[in-house]
Each structure stands twice: as structure tokens, then as C-alpha cells.
């Protein structure tokens, strides 16, 4: 009898692991339990579906359930929620609408993902209030902005100025809806730092978005079960709809109840192979921690690549080829209207100090192309290094072009543990349509290096 | 009395060194001899001046002679050619049109650049035959294609399918001129390898460029002192003008005559500080070798960043702050009509073997954006690793977007000496408008890594 690999959760991490494990060891029985209907979908594309850049929600699906079942021989069970893990018996308890049953496992992957955080305020259950963390929610929002489910809203309040909040601001704006963003912190996009955030905020205002920073939403006001206003301490803002995008939290409870260790971040703690404190239980994706190589500490950065990569590595390991899940450096990029906004590593002074560094920060602006070449756009880079060792700690950048993939140079340098001086001496590509002779990353490193001496 | 730093050549390397040395040590006398009129200009922009993207030749100048003289206190002497170096006396002999004189130096930088190679064929001196390696030549060509010096040509033959040949093909085509490219090798863009070159060739043909590969030009035919045809072994191609772009050669003769050592590449040999075999004589830019960190050997890659960087480092050293010039990995990018074409490291099998590696090559095609996001364009990557050590050796890539700066990820990994597996595990940026979840570089590394196991 073959061994059984059970996967809880059928998105990026879960399906990557299932596919890879089956490919490595075709004799393995691979069972995936997914509580919803959708598997292996690109959640990051949902804002563009709402915007109208993508026609069908199905376009976001990379591989269909049928393909997993028929071509990859994976026993994929949708509408099947795992409600308990018995580590001693090595079984999971599954509810599938018709009843409950136990499934044995030899290896188990917890890939339960994350959920939208719902702030503890009144009005969350009013009609016209949306969160945005499932394909169903994306369809609801799209139907609403397209006027296909009742009257099309003329105005929307977005609570939260993070990635999803700002991507959705662009989507609503493209639909001709007035957008107001409410952010309780002094700036949007907290992980990118103040300098970069201020450029983003200027851009948002230029696009006609009303920004309310440092503003706590106290309540969502309604009229007859329908949203009517965003209520803050000082004011009331009439809106026809509200999107709540106040971040995500890891779905780690199922594992925690079974005695699986959860880290300080609240996500499931894992080792370099994605193993939890139970040798037969792995965790990956938006419910799990990863190892941040800059801070040399566990970190919770729920992003798609980390999930895919860890899932694939765990699939290899379970399939018989032990493979490390890989480190992260905290790289992220987001499109905000016409801007590309990117970050990697540690850029926050306080965070750097907590990680034991003596951070030195430098901000520069340089062109995306040769100064004489048409279409040259300014790129602002904030780069941070450690005074004592000269080591590069991180960078954030913003500009209308050439930012999204330029951050990868910095990310790669962080993986390699390079000093700022070593970054300054990188042999990067140059041609007038694509860069100044000194790439903006080199210029940032050059100036920061001078400051570190 | 202050020390004297003499620089021969007033372009990228020379002016960077002069500026940096003076800034480091304001007491230093810094004298730059430039045989022509132009200093500190962006030669890489010349094709775009011919094309018409850039209005004035002067736009390519980063810093004017007046600024060097008045703001930076550099004794810049244009129309002054150094014709001899006496290392024992520590003097150079200068001709300035009015006569000849000796100038003493304490430190000397040879930054004499490179020149266009002129093939030994008949017809090079006909009217309508151009090379393209000086600002004057760029003006001549522009005046010609704009019809400002005689009749505008209807057709042009370009001899040489390298960077300049293909950039100029785009420029001529934009001017409505029929373009034929003659390349004696089987493919254009030799340093990029066959796979990438074939995609470029398809694109050139789609743009209406006539390509003659594996074709040796034997003569440029003329009628009454004027170019009339490109003559190959098999055929005669009538043209109104010819651009000869068959590569460049280092201007190392002046140094060599003075007993300065020249490397196997024909360029001046230097150490990690840009010093030649004479402690008081440095060399940098298109006349000098650099250290290729992948091959761990001297290399001749005459490109702008290397020149600027080495010049700046030598300026620091001469100014009192010893600074290494930095390694190269052979990164290059070129725009060919709508394509971005980039390379770094060692991608040629034979070259890799000569450097002591056992190269394994993998070609993949992946999207520039998420598969569902509008504007996704295929990127082809050829990546090479060493079988024995798993080390990354190089990559070349081509596509309509997202190539020029993606190569920098690979370049940075090469500087760090990463294995292909380490590249596969890089935490690179992802958002649907900018990349698939697995960046094409990661996908290439993933597949190559499997092949290396």
C-alpha cells in the first residue's frame, strides 16, 4: 500500500505541493481538501478583474480541478473542510456538506492560507460593505461596480491603504467611481516607508482619490441595512459602498488547536524544509512563517511566490527529494495607477535596529533612462545599509517605469549578503532607452556608500 | 608645489577620473588632454540622434568643457593630442596644432578609448561610406539621412550586425531608408548566442530589414567616387550609402610604444586598481582590460559603465583614497526595434569550456506579466550553469518588454558566485502587471537546476 500525502487547502502552496509530490513519486496517494470551490487561482489578479482588465474570473485560474484530477492524478476534494487534525492518530476530520469523515495521512501539509481581517466596528454586515479575499468576493464587487447587482455606486470608501486598498482604488476609479481611502496610520503602504509613501500619496491625489490619513474609522453608517457613510472621529463621509482592506491574518487556528507551534507573528512556525514542530506536518503559504535572511529571523510576508516556492519544495521533500523551501528577503511590488512601487529587505530604521543593525538611510532620485532619451522618468530610491558592517539592508523605490524589476537587483544582493560597496560595483546593464550609465540602484549605492565610510 | 595628474582622453573614463581626483584632493593639478573637441559625451546615444529621437548632438553631452574648467577646476585642453609617453622622465608629448610640448606628470591615466575597425576592403574612402565612432561621424550621418548634405539616400547597406549595426538599422528605418545588413558570421549579435540571435533576426525581417548572414563583403563598389553597391562573393547589392560597423579596437598603441603592457585581448592590462605595469600609469575605459569575475580572467568589454566606474575609482586612488575599479561580468543590453536583448556572464559553450567549466544550457520561454494580465509578452531566456559545481555561468534573453533590467538579477547573482539552485530560490518581485509568480529568471533557473542534478 502506498503512502498518503494529505494537503489542507487548494491554492498556491497546496496545489504546488500536491503536483510536485505526485510528480516526484507517482505511487504516492495525494489528497487535497479545499473548503471552497476554487483551486489554484491568482488572487493577486482579482483587482484587475474588478477593474475590467480581465474579462472572466475563470481567467485567473492557472490549472482547473479537472486537470489536477485527470492529468495530475491528484485526489482533489472541493467543498471539503478539514475541521480537525489528530496528530497522534495521523488523521484529519473532514466535513463535506454531506457529513464528516476521518482521513489518514503519512505526511500532512497545512496550507490554509489567510483571511481578510475584519475590524471590530459597527456596520460590517451592512449591504454594500465588502471584504476582498476570495474569488466569490471578487465576483460580488465586480457585479456591483458593473451595475449588475443593483444600482452602480457613485462613491466608495476604502478602509485601509495597503496593497489591496490601493489596487482597488485604481479599479474603482477606472469604473468611474469616486474613491476615498481611509488609513489609520500616517501613511499608506506602511512597509515602503514614509519617503516612498509620500510620492504615492501625491500621485493618488493627482488621480482624484481623496486620502484620509491618520484617520481611524469608527463605524460604517447605514440606512435600512444599506451602507450610507464612513464615520470617523471627526466627520462623516457619505458613500454608496465600502471596501474593507485592513490586512490579512494567517489561518493558523486549525493547526494551533492540534498543538502545532505558532510563531510570534501568529503564523505557523516552520524549519528550512517547511516542517512544523511535528515531523509529519508541514506548513506553507499565507498561514506559515518563512525565514527572512536579512533579519535572520522568522517573518510573516504572505505573498504568492513564497507560497508557490515553499509548496513546491515540500512536495519534493514528501516525494522523496528533501528540498529546502528557501529564504525570503521581503520583496514586494505594487502598481498604484501609473506608479510602480517596490521594496525589499529592511528599510525601516526601528525594525533594522531591532534586528541588531545600525541603519543609515539615503534617498536619491535618478532617471529611468539616459537623460537625453525620450521618456526618461524619475525613480526615487531609499536605500539602507548597516554602518558597522557596510552591509546592504534593503531598499524601497517608486517611479512610473523601471521600478518593478529593478528591485530584484537589490533583492538578489540581499540574498548574497552584499555590502553597499559591492552593490555600487555591480556590472549592470546600460543602454540609453533603459537606464542611465549608472543605474539608479548603483547611484543609490554610491551615495549611501559615501555616507557609510 | 602640488602633484600633477595627467589624463589622456576626455570622455567617460578620463573625465570621471579627473573630476573625482580633483574632488578628493583639490590641491592636485589635473590636466586632461583631448585630441578632439568633444568631451564627456554619451556615444551610446548617437544612433538615437541619427534616428531623430534626440534633437541636438549637444544633448548627448553630460558636462560641458566650460563646466569642467570653471566649476571643477580641471585644466582641460581640447584639440591636444598626446603623441608620446616618456615613463622615465614622467612626461607626455602634446601636439596642439600650434606646436609640440612636454608635460610632466606624477600620475598618468591612459583613457584613449577605442576606434571603429576598418575592414581591409576597397571602397572605404568613397563618398557615402561612413563609420560611426565619433560625434563628428554621427553629425555626418544625421545630415545625410536628413537630406541636409546632398540627396537623402533611399537605401543603406550596414556592414556588421553588432550593437551599433542593429541600432543604426533601426535609425535608418525610422528615416524611411531601406536597410540591408551584412554579417560575415552565421548570426547577428555574436555575444548573445544563436538562440537569442535567431529571434532578433526574425524580428529584423519582420521590420523589413534585409539580412545577409554568413556573408563576407568583399568590396564597396563605387561610381565616380560615390558608393554604389555592396559587393559580396556571390552578388552585388545596389545601395546609396554604407555604414561600416564591424566592431571596435582599443587605442592601446600609444601606451604600448611606451612599454606599457598590453593583454591578450589587445587592450591595456591593468590590476584591480586600474594600474598598468607602471605604478604611475593607469588605464581605463575602452582602451583597457577589466577583470571578468565569471571567467576569473582579464576581459575586453568596451562599455560605458565599466569606463565610468574605473575612471571614478582611479580618480579616488590618485586623489588619495585607494579604490578598486571593480569586476565585470560582461553585462550588455541593446534595443533592436521593438526588442530588448540582453546578456551577462558566459553563455557560449566553447568559451565556458575554455574557462574550465562543464557548461549545461537551458532555454525557456515565459511571460513578462501574469498570464491573464493584458500586455503579457513572451521572454526567451538561455541560461547556462556549470555541471560540476552547479554554479550559474550566464544568461541571455530577448523579449518586447521586461528584459533590459531583468538581466541585472542574473548579473548580480554572477557577482555573488551563486549556484543555479540559489538563483531559483531568490525572492523576486511579483505583481500581475510586472511578472508571473515565478519570474522568468526563476523559471529558467528552476528548469536548468533540474538538468544539472
Classified by CATH, the class of the largest domain in chain A is Alpha Beta
Count of structural domains of chain A: 3
Instruction: Look at the helices and sheets of chain A and give the structural class.
Output: alpha/beta
Overall geometric form of chain A: globular
Sheet of most strands of chain A: 5 strands, parallel
The number of helical runs of chain A is: 12
- What assembly state would you assign to the polypeptide chains in this entry? homodimer
What is the CA-atom radius of gyration of chain A, in angstroms? 23 Å
The largest chain-to-chain contact, stated as pair and per-chain residue counts, equals: A-B, 66 and 66 residues
**Corresponding CATH superfamily of the largest domain in chain A:** FAD/NAD(P)-binding domain
- The overall pLDDT average of chain A reads 96
- The count of strands of chain A amounts to 25
N→C terminal distance of chain A: 64 Å
The residue ranges of chain A in which pLDDT falls below 50 over 5 or more consecutive positions are none
The helix content of chain A, as a percent range, equals 25-40%
**Proportion in β-strands of chain A:** 25-35%
As for the CATH topology of the largest domain in chain A, it is FAD/NAD(P)-binding domain
In order across it, which strands form the biggest sheet of chain A?
3-2-1-7-18
Amino acid at each position: 500500500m502506498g503512502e498518503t500525502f494529505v494537503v489542507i487547502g487548494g491554492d498556491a502552496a497546496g496545489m504546488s505541493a500536491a503536483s510536485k509530490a505526485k510528480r516526484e513519486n507517482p505511487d504516492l496517494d495525494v489528497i487535497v481538501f479545499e473548503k471552497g470551490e476554487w483551486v489554484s487561482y491568482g488572487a493577486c489578479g482579482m483587482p484587475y478583474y474588478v477593474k475590467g482588465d480581465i474579462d472572466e474570473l475563470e481567467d485567473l485560474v492557472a490549472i482547473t480541478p479537472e486537470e489536477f484530477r485527470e492529468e495530475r492524478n491528484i485526489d482533489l476534494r472541493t467543498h471539503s473542510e478539514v475541521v480537525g487534525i489528530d496528530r497522534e492518530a495521523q488523521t484529519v476530520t473532514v466535513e463535506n456538506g454531506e457529513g464528516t469523515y476521518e482521513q489518514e495521512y503519512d505526511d500532512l501539509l497545512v496550507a490554509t492560507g489567510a483571511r481578510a481581517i475584519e475590524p471590530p466596528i459597527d456596520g460590517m454586515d451592512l449591504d454594500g460593505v465588502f471584504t476582498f479575499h476570495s474569488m466569490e468576493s471578487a465576483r460580488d464587487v465586480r457585479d456591483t461596480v458593473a451595475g449588475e447587482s443593483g444600482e452602480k455606486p457613485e462613491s466608495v470608501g476604502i478602509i485601509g491603504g495597503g496593497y489591496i486598498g490601493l489596487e482597488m482604488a485604481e479599479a474603482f476609479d477606472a469604473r468611474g467611481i469616486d474613491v476615498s481611502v481611509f488609513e489609520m496610520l500616517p501613511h499608506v503602504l506602511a512597509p515602503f516607508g514614509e519617503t516612498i509613501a509620500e510620492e504615492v500619496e501625491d500621485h493618488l491625489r493627482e488621480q482624484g482619490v481623496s486620502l484620509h490619513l491618520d484617520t481611524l474609522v469608527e463605524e460604517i453608517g447605514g440606512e435600512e441595512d444599506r451602507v450610507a457613510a464612513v464615520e470617523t472621529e471627526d466627520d462623516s463621509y457619505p458613500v454608496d459602498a465600502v471596501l474593507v482592506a485592513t490586512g490579512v491574518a494567517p489561518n493558523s487556528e486549525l493547526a494551533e488547536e492540534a498543538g502545532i507551534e505558532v510563531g510570534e507573528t501568529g503564523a505557523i512556525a516552520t524549519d528550512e524544509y517547511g516542517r512544523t514542530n511535528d515531523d509529519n506536518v508541514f506548513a506553507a503559504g499565507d498561514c506559515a512563517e518563512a525565514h527572512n535572511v536579512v533579519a535572520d529571523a522568522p517573518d510573516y510576508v504572505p505573498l504568492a511566490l513564497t507560497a508557490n516556492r515553499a509548496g513546491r519544495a515540500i512536495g519534493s521533500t514528501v516525494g522523496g527529494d528533501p528540498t529546502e523551501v528557501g529564504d525570503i528577503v521581503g520583496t514586494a511590488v505594487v502598481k498604484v495607477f501609473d506608479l510602480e512601487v517596490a521594496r525589499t529587505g529592511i528599510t525601516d530604521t526601528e525594525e533594522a535596529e531591532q534586528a541588531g543593525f545600525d541603519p543609515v538611510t539615503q534617498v536619491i532620485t535618478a532617471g529611468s533612462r539616459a537623460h537625453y532619451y525620450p521618456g526618461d522618468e524619475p525613480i526615487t530610491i531609499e536605500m539602507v545599509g548597516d554602518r558597522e558592517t557596510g552591509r546592504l539592508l534593503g531598499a524601497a523605490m517608486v517611479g512610473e517605469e523601471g521600478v518593478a524589476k529593478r528591485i530584484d537587483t537589490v533583492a538578489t544582493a540581499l540574498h548574497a549578503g552584499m555590502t553597499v560597496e559591492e552593490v555600487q560595483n555591480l556590472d549592470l546593464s546600460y543602454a540609453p532607452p533603459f537606464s542611465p550609465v549608472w543605474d539608479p540602484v548603483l547611484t543609490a549605492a554610491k551615495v549611501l556608500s559615501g555616507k557609510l565610510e
